[in-house]
Write a structure and sequence with these properties.
single chain; 638 residues; alpha+beta; eight-stranded mixed β-sheet; five-stranded mixed β-sheet; 20 helices; 36 strands; 35% helix; 29% strand; RNA-binding
Length: 638
RNA sequence: GCCGACGUAGCUCAAUUGGCAGAGCGGCUGACUUGUAAUCAGCAGGUUGGGGGUUCAAGUCCCUUCGUCGGCUCCA
C-alpha cells in the first residue's frame, strides 16, 4: 500500500500502482471526466500512469496552468499522426514540443507542405480526435527503442543523447512516438485546435543541419479561449507597426536602396523627437552628460576594442586615402576615447556619459523585421565609469531611471539577470562581486526577475528588461551590462586617494534600447493612437467651409503660438470628410470652426475616441491640453 | 544565410486554359459652400520589382537577381 496526499491535505492509502485517474474517479465521476493529467510530487503524470510510492497528487483539469502543456503535447502527436496518414510512412518525425501559446512539430519529408495544406491536415486531426483513440504509455529499454524506431533517424539520434537506461513511448491507434509525456488518456479529450503556419526549421536549430518542415498550431480547452487567442492574433496583425507606420506617415522603408534602414517622415520624426526630449530630461535628472561621437572611425580603434575580432561580421566598412574605417556598431569605443582625453580623480567618479548614438549593424537578410530589427538604429546609450564600490548604487539609479521611463508609457516589465558564462574574461572573484551587486540591486527594486545562469556576455554579467505591451506581448528593451574588458583593453584609469592609478568599472546601459524599436512597440501598443504628448498632431482645425478659413488660420496661429502641434485642414471637402481624415490620422482633438464659433467664441471639441464636448472657452481648452501634455498623460482630457 | 510563400498604379486588390493590363481609395481639375467617420463629375497615373529565356503571343511558363512576409531559441 502507498500513501496519497491530496491538495486539501487529506491522506488515503491505495494499492501500489494505482493511477491518478482511478483516484480521480473515486473522488467523483465529474472530476474524472474533467481530468487531463496529474501532478505527482510536482511531476506531470498521465492519468493512467501507475503511482509506485507515497506521493502528493493533484488532479489537473482544464482550469490548471499545467493543462495546456499536457493537451498541446497530445495535439502535437495527433498532428504528427495526421501528417503520417496523409503523406505516408516515409515521413520522418523530428520533435514536437509545446511552446508558449501552442505547439509545433518538425517533419522531414519529400513533399512540400504549404499553408494551403493546413486545412486538409486539420481535417484529418479532427477525424483522429473523433476516433477518440486511447493513448497508452510504454516503458522500454533503450535497446528495444532503437529497434522500434529503426526507421526514424531523428528519434535514434535523440535516443543517443538520453542518459537513462529506459525510455517511454506513447501509442494511439496506429501511431507511436518516442516521448517523455505526459499525454491525455485519449485523443478525444480536446477538440479546439487550429493550425497556424508552416515554416522551415533546422534540425536542432543548427544551420549546419538539415532544414525540416515545421507546422505551428495551437489548442485550447475551451472554444472561447481558442477564439480569443485567434482574435488576439488578428488584433496584433491590425496593430502591426509595419502596416500602421506608413499609413500614418510615420516612417517608410526604401527596400532597394537602403534595406532594413528606416526613414522617418515628418510625422514620425515628431514622435521620435518627443521620445528623445523625454529621455534627455531624465538623463539630466539622473546626472548624465550628453556627448556626440563620430559615425566612422579608423579601423585601428576597432582592433583595439576587440570588435574586429568578435563583431566584424556585423560591421560596415569604408575606405578613403588608403585608410580603412569602420562605421560604428556600438558607441563604447568612442566614449572611451572621450574618457581617456583627460585624467580623472576618484572625486570625479562616477562619470555618466550618454549619447543618442546612431549605430549600423549588418543583420542577415532573413532576420530583419520592420522597426524591430533593423540595420541602422539609435541607441539611448550611456556608459558609467565608476569604482567597484559604486556599482550597486549606480545599478539602482539605472533601475530607477528605467522605472520612471517605462511607467510613463504604462508598461509593466520584468528582468533577467544573466551570470558568468563558461567562456569569460576576468577573474571569478570580480564576477562574483559584480553579479552580487546586480542581484542586490534587483532585490532592492522589488521587480520580478529570473536568473539566466551562464547567459552573460563574455565581458561581464548583465540585466535585461522585458516590457509587456497592451496585448501582453513581451519585448526586450533596456539592458545594463557590466564590462571588465573594455577598461583593460583601453587601459583607462582614475587616481585614487593615495594618488595611485586605479582601473574603473564600466557599465553599459540603454533604456529605450533602440529608439526605432521602442517606437515600433509604441505604435503597436497604442495602435497608432499616441497619447497627446507624443502625437504628431495634437489638434486638428476643421473649417466648415472656405468662408471660415481666415478664422481657422487665426485659431491655428493662436494654438501654434501656445506650443501645440496643430493641423489646419483647409481642403475643399465636407466636414464629415475632414473629420474622418483627422480620425484616421488618430489626431487626439478636433475643433470644427464655422458660423456658430465666430459668434459665440466658444468651441466644440471632438476627440478621436468620439466624445464631443460643447461650448468650451478656448483658453480653458488650451490650458487643459497643455497640462495634459506637460504631465505626459496617457489619457485624453475629454 | 537557409526553407516556404509572395512581388500588378502612391495604397488595397482584379485580370478564364498564356490572348487588348482593370477597379476602388488616394492625386489633379471643376462644380458644390458644406456642422462632427467618405458630395458629385471629369482627367492623369503602369517597361506587371530588375535582368534573361520559351512562345505567333508572357502579369501568367522557365532561369536568375533584388526585396517583402512566416519561421529557423523553446529539445523525446
Amino acid at each position: 500500500m502507498i500513501k496519497i496526499i491530496l491538495p486539501d491535505g487529506s491522506e488515503k492509502e491505495y494499492k501500489k500502482g494505482i493511477s491518478a485517474g482511478e483516484i480521480a474517479r473515486e473522488i467523483s465521476e465529474g472530476l474524472f471526466r474533467k481530468a487531463l493529467g496529474a501532478l505527482v510530487n510536482g511531476e506531470l503524470y498521465d492519468l493512467n500512469r501507475p503511482i509506485e510510492s507515497d506521493s502528493t497528487v493533484k488532479i489537473i483539469t482544464d482550469k490548471d496552468p499545467e493543462a495546456p502543456v499536457i493537451f498541446r503535447h497530445t495535439i502535437a502527436h495527433i498532428m504528427a499522426q495526421a501528417v503520417v496518414r496523409l503523406y505516408g510512412k516515409n515521413v520522418k518525425l523530428a520533435i514536437g514540443p509545446v511552446i508558449e501559446n501552442g505547439f509545433y512539430y518538425d517533419f522531414d519529408l519529400e513533399e512540400k507542405i504549404s499553408e494551403d495544406d493546413l486545412p486538409k491536415i486539420e481535417a484529418e486531426m479532427k477525424k483522429i480526435i473523433k476516433e477518440n483513440l486511447p493513448i497508452e504509455r510504454f516503458v522500454i529499454s533503450k535497446e528495444e527503442a532503437k529497434e522500434l524506431f529503426k526507421d526514424q533517424p531523428y528519434k535514434l539520434e535523440l535516443l543517443e543523447d538520453i542518459e537513462d537506461e529506459t525510455v517511454t513511448y506513447y501509442k494511439q491507434g496506429e501511431f507511436f512516438d518516442l516521448c517523455r509525456g505526459p499525454h491525455l488518456p485519449s485523443t478525444g479529450k480536446i477538440k479546439h485546435i487550429k493550425l497556424l503556419s508552416v515554416s522551415g526549421a533546422y534540425w536542432r536549430g543548427n544551420e549546419k543541419n538539415k532544414m525540416l518542415q515545421r507546422i505551428y498550431g495551437t489548442a485550447f480547452a475551451k472554444k472561447d479561449q481558442l477564439d480569443e487567442y485567434l482574435k488576439m492574433l488578428e488584433e496584433a496583425k491590425k496593430r502591426d507597426h509595419r502596416k500602421i507606420g506608413p499609413k500614418l506617415e510615420l516612417f517608410m522603408f526604401e527596400n532597394e536602396l537602403a534595406p532594413a534602414m528606416p526613414f522617418f517622415l515628418p510625422r514620425g520624426a515628431k514622435v521620435i523627437n518627443e521620445l528623445l526630449e523625454f529621455s534627455r530630461e531624465l538623463h539630466k535628472k539622473y546626472g548624465y552628460e550628453e556627448v556626440i561621437t563620430p559615425l566612422i572611425m579608423n579601423i585601428k580603434l576597432w582592433h583595439q576594442s576587440g570588435h574586429w575580432d568578435h563583431y566584424k561580421e556585423n560591421m560596415y566598412f569604408t575606405e578613403k586615402d588608403d585608410v580603412q574605417y569602420a562605421v560604428k556598431p556600438m558607441n563604447c569605443p568612442g566614449h572611451i576615447l572621450i574618457y581617456k582625453s583627460k585624467v580623472y580623480s576618484y572625486r570625479d567618479l562616477p562619470i555618466r556619459m550618454s549619447e543618442f548614438g546612431k549605430v549600423h549593424r549588418y543583420e542577415r537578410s532573413g532576420v530583419v523585421h520592420g522597426l524591430f530589427r533593423v540595420r541602422s538604429f539609435t541607441q539611448d546609450d550611456a556608459h558609467i565609469y565608476c569604482t567597484k564600490e559604486q556599482i550597486e548604487d549606480e545599478i539602482i539609479k539605472v533601475m530607477d531611471f528605467t522605472n520612471e521611463l517605462y511607467s510613463a508609457f504604462g508598461f509593466e516589465y520584468e528582468a533577467d539577470l544573466s551570470t558568468m558564462p563558461e567562456d569569460h574574461m576576468g577573474d571569478e572573484k570580480t564576477w562574483e562581486v559584480a553579479t552580487e551587486a546586480l542581484r542586490k540591486a534587483l532585490e532592492k527594486s522589488g521587480i520580478n526577475y529570473k536568473i539566466n545562469e551562464g547567459d552573460g556576455a563574455f565581458y561581464g554579467p548583465k540585466i535585461d528588461f522585458h516590457i509587456k505591451d497592451s496585448l501582453g506581448r513581451k519585448w526586450q528593451c533596456a539592458t545594463i551590462q557590466l564590462d571588465f574588458q573594455m577598461p583593460e583593453r583601453f587601459d583607462i584609469h582614475y587616481v585614487d586617494n593615495n594618488n595611485e592609478l586605479q582601473r574603473p568599472v564600466m557599465i553599459h546601459r540603454a533604456i529605450y534600447g533602440s529608439i526605432e524599436r521602442f517606437f515600433g512597440i509604441l505604435i503597436e501598443n497604442f495602435a497608432g493612437a499616441f497619447p497627446t504628448w507624443l502625437s504628431p498632431e495634437q489638434v486638428a482645425i476643421i473649417p466648415v467651409s472656405d468662408k471660415y478659413i481666415d478664422a481657422a488660420k487665426e485659431l491655428y496661429e493662436k494654438l501654434d503660438s501656445e506650443g501645440l502641434r496643430v493641423k489646419l485642414d483647409a481642403s475643399n471637402a465636407t466636414v464629415g470628410y475632414k473629420i474622418r481624415n483627422a480620425q484616421m490620422l488618430k489626431i487626439p482633438y478636433m475643433i470644427v470652426i464655422g458660423e456658430k464659433e465666430l459668434e459665440t467664441k466658444k468651441y466644440n471639441v471632438r476627440t478621436r475616441e468620439g466624445n464631443t464636448v460643447e461650448d468650451l472657452e478656448l483658453e480653458d481648452f488650451i490650458k487643459t491640453v497643455k497640462e495634459e501634455i506637460k504631465n505626459r498623460s496617457l489619457k485624453l482630457s475629454y
